[in-house]
Amino acid sequence: MIEVSGCVACGRRLFPARLRCPLCGGFEFLAFYVEAGTVEGVTSLVHTLGQSLTAPVYLGVLLVAENVRVLARIDGPVEIGSVMALSFNGETLIAAQRT
Ligand SMILES: [Zn+2]
User: Where exactly are the structural domains of the chain?
Assistant: First the structure.
């Protein structure tokens, strides 16, 4: 589950949270919790700088709310349109698992 902010003035959903709404300049937000997203794109990495990875790392762009997309690490190759659960892994990484 991830927290998405919603601007009180215009309703725009934002992730990550902002101090001001980029659409209307509003500064009051409500929190919405999103448990899953729909995969819009996937790529895999097989090398990092200066070394090969022991296993591919999959990254996906997921639509989690209207106009809100996140980049998430995915647990394996998936088809576009798949719905995946979202969670924080540590402090900053969003992990997506098949639902
Ligand atoms: Zn706004």
Answer: 1-34, 36-99
Least confident of 24-28, 45-49, 63-67, 78-82: 45-49
Task: Please write the tens of the pLDDT for every residue from 62-71.
Answer: 999 888 999 9
**Residue 53 pLDDT:** 83
49 CA distance to ligand 1 centroid (A)?
A: 40
CA of 65 to the centre of ligand 1 (A): 15
Whole-angstrom Cα distance, residue 38 to residue 58?
A: 15
User: How far is ligand 1, taken at its centre, from the CA of residue 33, in Å?
Assistant: 18
pTM (two decimals) = 0.81
Architecture of domain 36-99: Beta Barrel (2.40)
60 CA distance to ligand 1 middle (Å) = 27
CB 78 within 8 A of CB 39: yes
Nearest Cα to 75, choosing from 90, 65, 85, 67?
85
